[in-house]
Amino acid sequence: MTFENSLSFAENLDRQDPLREYREAFLFPRHQGEPVIYFTGNSLGLQPKGAEEYVREVMADWKELAVEGHFKADRPWWTYHEQLATPMASIVGALPKEVTIMNTLTVNLHLLMVSFFRPEGKRRKILCEEKAFPSDQYMLKSQLRFHGLDPEEALIEVKKLPGQHAWTTQDFLQAIEEHGDELALVMLGGVNYYNGQVLDMASITRAARAAGAKVGWDLAHAAGNVELSLHDWGVDFAAWCSYKYLNSGPGNASGVFIHERHLERDDLPRFEGWWGNRKETRFLMEPEFDPIPTADAWQLSNPPILSLAPLVASLDLFEKAGMENLCRKRDMLTGYLEFILQEVDRETESDFEIITPADRGCQLSVFLHGEGRPLFDYLMQQGVITDWREPNVIRLAPAPFYCSFADMYRFGQILKKGILERP
Ligand SMILES: Cc1ncc(COP(=O)(O)O)c(C=O)c1O
What we know:
The protein is α/β, with parallel strands linked by helices. Helices cover 39% and strands 15% of the residues. It contains 15 helices and 17 strands. It has helices at 7-16, 51-65, 69-72, 82-92, 105-116, 134-146, 151-154, 169-179, 201-210, 230-233, 279-282, 305-321, 323-348, 373-381, 405-420; strands at residues 26-27, 30-31, 34-35, 37-38, 47-48, 99-102, 125-129, 155-158, 183-189, 214-218, 237-241, 254-258, 351-354, 364-369, 384-385, 387-389, 393-396. Helix 2 runs antiparallel to helix 12 and helix 13 (323-348) runs parallel beside helix 15 (405-420). The protein is globular and about 70 Å long. Residues 104-106, 133, 135-136, 189, 193, 218, 220-221, 241 line the site of pyridoxal-5'-phosphate.
């Protein structure tokens, strides 16, 4: 499609957008009475309008039923998390039994390492990407130290080629081949938080498994943003947070995927708690653990129901809108944003560099050569909510659920003004 940098063109795209009504299902902060232009769905998604109602329902059940809410609430608390498995599984391409919602992301990665990082003999190394999200680096290094290994030797960080902002799939395949029989685990971010790159998860998973390693993915920036087929790709495990593209609220719970082939295994170590015990025998209070035959066996505690409530509202919307439709709009919207950036770059004789490669979700990371933090501050003051990453990068993630084509056009106008007229 040939894009045009005009409000009427953008508004026309909005009129033709089959998902346009979903913008109304979210609450926008306001700037001078108007909804902000929100580019940080990759950090914290907007609040679905329905979220408060689900939270209120739990508060009312607690008030009226107290402890009996566990079994007598319309959505009984003891099975509350179960309603999330099917919609979440369809977002990540899994069987419902392969998915559970529990804890938070870094906590879950540590718990999954208990099952899937088992250094033995020559196979003691972990392969990850260079400059992985810091929490993942801390997690991986502390796990290695916990097993008595030195991260300097046992953590292999796949680097980009000199001068490149993105990896090639070959960078990973080559590293896997090179270290093949020493690898215990390949653990990577499916969508890189910094440059927005979507890795070829299918090929990397296949290569890692062929080399005899386990494969885990941090899908914080992938879940709800890109198409995933965790089951078919044969991924061993994955985890993701729900507060970014899944719009569940600050610091909210994490999703976990464990491939079917690892469920019901007696030989796989796991840290256990009573909520992983089968419901039928849980309240017999027996001393021996009787695992649920699904990913729920990895649950430790009874879940924080108030926290899960907004996630129910959000996943309702995903079920209605459909990942396929969201991804179709994502590509149009991100393509239009790219066009707008190129237009502003040309009109202002700036030197923007989009460092996100063609394999992308909705995030564009832009190097603002010649412009610095003052331009970012200006954008924020004008109601454009974006984020800044050192040394000189802004990340723009137009979530297709609630961002419009007109937002992209308006952003371009503000950006242009910020460059040409900012004092
Ligand atoms: C890629 C990635 N991994 C891990 C985390 C840590 O998430 P949490 O604080 O929920 O453990 C984040 C948080 O933004 C992230 O973006």
